[in-house]
């Protein structure tokens, strides 16, 4: 398809008087990456350490319908200008250009970070497009045995995709499901390539994804025991991004359709029908696809921390470590592993961690100096397995918003037997 023809074709797709089925053929491919990045690879600047997170100031916006139309027009103009300067491109390359334009205009600030109002803008964009995103349909319940990753206390469960069963990490710190790209290809899953370089500023451990070529895959119904969810996408990553014998990550896009009960001592996971919050549960706030809670450390705070079953230990940002007085210049260093490879970090010790009525003392932690994993609004650390595995966890979630992001929830923690030891954990998302 010649560039001029492609440009006219794209413009036709975005006209208000177009046929819905023609418009729907293009826009889902634009939005797959945008929705995915809102909930898994989102990143914006972190406010000053020690401040109680405030909702970022957002300039006054037009009404949603007006804003959505403006964004559609801007995406069209961006795509036209880029395609006119290109030689003949195939369909995949054209869609990559369109995807990048949509992300830059709808969700990104000039410095490449995610806008504080990115989710609202994406919702307006979707509404203006007139398309219907796939609806997640959850059925059934599950009661399954948890397995441990070798030499670790991170838990995995069997996940069925089509007729095949694979081992997935349970990860509340991931907004979306992730799959080994080779397995996705073996399953012949329909996919949409993501633009090159789009993973460069991802909030994960390691820096090996900068120039990675990857795709978003459309998943068939996926199941855990008798619990199933349809209407999901997954990011494909190479096999070396996962621990040995792990084929993927089960994220909140699946888990949030149920009440999740995780008992580390019994190594048991239950997926139950959603229920109402109970008294004394820890309130959770959705933050660009992850769940956060207010945390006190060494009698200081509150600080906003992500609650992450995929993280091996407590993690704090370097500015917070300095504020707490735990950033020792000669502290022992260690290497940790995540989606983006390995990263060297400092070890630290936290005298006291308190989340509402639950607290723990003398916990190991690491100080993140280079990683972008904490580059989310107001996130100053992560609650990992060395805290969570002291409790049975009962997670409840609100219904997702228009673009599939969970905005609130609760976590009820029940202390486990004092004789139970979670053990050492070596893997970090």
TrEMBL record:
Set out the biological process GO terms recorded for this chain's protein. Answer: proteolysis
Keyword Protease attached: yes
Q: Give GO terms: molecular function aspect only.
A: peptidase activity
Q: TM spans, by residue?
A: 26-45
Asked whether the UniProt record includes Hydrolase among its keywords, one would answer yes
Q: Which UniProt keywords apply?
A: Hydrolase, Membrane, Protease, Transmembrane, Transmembrane helix
Mention any Pfam family matching this sequence.
gag-asp_proteas
What's this protein's name? Clan AA aspartic protease
What organism does this protein naturally occur in? Amazonocrinis nigriterrae CENA67
């Amino acid at each position: 398809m010649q560039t001029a023809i492609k440009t006219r074709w794209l413009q036709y797709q975005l006209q208000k008087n177009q046929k819905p089925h023609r418009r729907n053929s293009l826009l889902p491919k634009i939005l797959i990456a945008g929705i995915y990045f809102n909930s898994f690879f989102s990143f914006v600047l972190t406010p000053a350490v020690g401040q109680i997170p405030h909702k970022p100031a957002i300039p006054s916006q037009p009404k949603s319908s007006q804003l959505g139309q403006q964004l559609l027009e801007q995406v069209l103009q961006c795509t036209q200008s880029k395609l006119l300067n290109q030689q003949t491109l195939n369909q995949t390359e054209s869609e990559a250009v369109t995807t990048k334009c949509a992300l830059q205009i709808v969700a990104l600030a000039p410095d490449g970070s995610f806008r504080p109002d990115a989710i609202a803008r994406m919702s307006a964009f979707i509404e203006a497009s007139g398309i219907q995103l796939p609806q997640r349909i959850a059925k059934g319940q599950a009661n399954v045995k948890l397995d441990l990753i070798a030499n670790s206390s991170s838990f995995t469960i069997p996940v069925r995709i089509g007729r095949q069963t694979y081992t997935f990490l349970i990860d509340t710190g991931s907004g979306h499901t992730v799959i080994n790209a080779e397995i996705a290809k073996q399953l012949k899953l329909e996919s949409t390539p993501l633009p090159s370089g789009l993973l460069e500023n991802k909030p994960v451990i390691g820096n090996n994804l900068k120039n990675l070529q990857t795709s978003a895959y459309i998943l068939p119904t996926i199941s855990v025991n008798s619990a199933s969810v349809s209407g999901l996408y997954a990011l494909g990553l190479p096999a070396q991004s996962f621990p040995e014998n792990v084929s993927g990550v089960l994220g909140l896009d699946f888990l949030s359709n149920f009440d999740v009960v995780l008992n580390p001592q019994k190594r048991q996971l239950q997926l139950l029908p959603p229920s109402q919050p109970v008294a004394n549960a820890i309130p959770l706030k959705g933050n660009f696809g992850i769940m956060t809670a207010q945390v006190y450390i060494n009698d200081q705070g509150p600080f906003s921390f992500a609650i992450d079953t995929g993280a091996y230990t407590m993690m704090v940002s370097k500015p917070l470590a300095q504020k707490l007085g735990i950033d020792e210049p000669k502290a022992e260093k260690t290497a940790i592993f995540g989606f983006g490879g390995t990263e060297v970090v400092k070890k630290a010790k936290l005298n006291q961690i308190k989340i509402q009525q639950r607290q723990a003392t003398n916990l190991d932690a690491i100080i993140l100096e280079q990683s972008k994993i904490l580059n989310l609004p107001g996130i100053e650390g992560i609650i990992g397995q060395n805290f969570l595995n002291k409790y049975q966890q009962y997670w409840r979630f609100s219904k997702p918003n228009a673009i599939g992001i969970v905005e609130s929830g609760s976590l009820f923690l029940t202390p486990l037997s004092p004789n139970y030891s979670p053990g050492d954990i070596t893997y970090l998302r």
